[in-house]
Specification:
The protein is an alpha/beta fold and 296 residues long. The chain is 46% helix and 14% strand. Helix 6 runs parallel beside helix 7.
Length: 296
């Protein structure tokens, strides 16, 4: 299927306190995203640290997102994992709670075959009527959705597209060629948002847009308007901020950045650690240079 997601989507962080999820802070972040023009909120993606959350916390966060967004932005819930049966159950729960779509990362650590990937996505898509997005991020999972494999996955009726974060533009272009007209291509890597959009990507799923939702949305709009001069200018301005947001493993820097903006984002959960002092200074400088109001 095509046409499910267009524009800018934010891979939301999950704010924590010592006692659990900070739902009030999460609601404030949703308001910030909607005010910035974000089209969709991706909840419980990798940036949201779901691997360290309990099932009860995940369900509560999904319920909070539905209540807070109130239909003003699409809600895409991350339900993938390395246990297909559990991914299916989470997908069914997400649909019951009011998700608009599903993001399913490839199974990690198990390192299934390409045929295993196809069966995994068939199982998830078969468990829901919602649009499903593949998430290809081999640097984290150890599994890469090859273009020929994605062409087969694209035949599944409710497969909406692929969030591409392989970092390999040659592969991205080949995937785009093979799935064009069957399902959509989304950028899952902020450093490559511009070229992926120019290659026919219909949306970005961005980490940096946690901090700068308006600018990321404007970048997408500039490409849609065929204004490459404006798109390049926006991309040039965003590049140092993007680089700083990945000075350490995601979401350590972006979570620190949200704290700097005055949101009660808290610290990442172990085994992730708080941002190192040198990287915090780099991030703060990049945010100030971009024009963000640093409050902390």
């Amino acid at each position: 299927m095509t046409g499910f997601l267009k524009g800018s989507a934010t891979a939301m962080i999950t704010p924590f306190t010592e006692n659990g999820v900070n739902f009030a802070a999460f609601e404030a972040m949703i308001e910030y995203q909607i005010a910035g023009g974000t089209d969709a909120l991706v909840v419980l993606g990798t940036t949201g640290e779901p691997a360290t959350m309990t099932e009860e916390e995940k369900e509560a966060l999904m319920r909070c997102a539905v209540k807070a967004a109130k239909g003003r932005a699409k809600l895409i819930f991350g339900t993938g994992g390395n246990n297909t049966a559990k991914a299916v159950r989470m997908t069914q729960l997400a649909e019951q709670l009011g998700a608009d779509g599903i993001l399913a990362v490839t199974p990690y650590y198990n390192k299934c075959t390409q045929n295993g990937l196809i069966e995994y996505y068939k199982a998830i898509c078969g468990a829901t009527k919602l649009p499903v997005i593949c998430y290809n991020v081999p640097s984290r999972t150890g599994v890469n959705i090859l273009p020929e494999t994605m062409a087969r996955i694209a035949e599944i009726p409710n497969m909406a597209g692929i969030k591409e974060a392989s970092g390999n533009m040659a592969q991205v272009l080949e995937t785009a060629r093979l799935i064009r007209g069957k399902c959509d291509l989304y950028s899952g890597e902020d450093a490559l948002n511009l070229p992926i959009l120019c290659a026919g990507g219909t949306a970005v799923i961005s980490v940096v847009s946690n901090l700068a939702p308006k600018a990321v949305k404007e970048l997408v709009c500039a490409v849609e308007a065929y204004d490459l001069a404006e798109a390049n200018a926006l991309n040039d301005a965003l590049a140092p901020l993007s680089k700083a947001c990945f000075a350490e493993v995601n979401p350590i820097p972006v979570k620190a950045g949200m704290n700097m903006l005055g949101f009660a984002a808290g610290e990442p959960r172990a085994p992730l650690t708080p941002i190192e002092e040198a990287h915090a200074a780099l991030l703060r400088g990049a945010m100030q240079a971009f024009g963000l109001e640093v409050k902390a």
